Amino acid sequence: MKWADGVGFVNKIVGGSIPKEFISSVEWGVRTTAKTGVLAGYPLINIKVTLTDGSYHDVDSSQVAFELAGRLALIDAAKAAGLQLLEPIMKVVVTTPKDFVGNVTGDLNRRRGLIVNSDERGNAVFIEAEVPLSEMFGYTTELRSMSTGRASSVMEPLRYAPVPANVAKAVLEDASR
Q1: End-to-end Cα distance, the chain
Q2: 120 and 50 housed in the same domain
Q3: What is the pTM of this model?
Q4: Which domain holds residue 72?
């Protein structure tokens, strides 16, 4: 199996149903389609494609035809598999004085955040949350504003998670315009 760009490609053709020179064309079609995406132009990640069978015609077969076949096969398979839009979730740790804990937690909740832990040390409170990256733009400025410059935050990638249905619908509608 060959892995590249989050796509695994396995060739299980036996008996020459597809000539060897066309197998790389199928792989190319699959990989380019995974990069450009099937759903709203977003790339596919962590997928495995297995080429098991096919056919060719001495006169009508070409590299372009096999690239297109790989592309169309991936699109059909992805839709049949119940394709799902994912979003990056960030681990966010906010350090704030006790006076601003309500404002900070309320703002994180407004951003679709999930508070997973809070720890109090002296007058400081450490709030750990999981928040979609799309909701974090401009956060540092708002955090400083709501805490009169006394709170700070750090953020790091945590995982990918399915996008809520209402958000996915809006994203897909925007992409179709």
Answers
A1: 38
A2: no
A3: 0.75
A4: 2-80
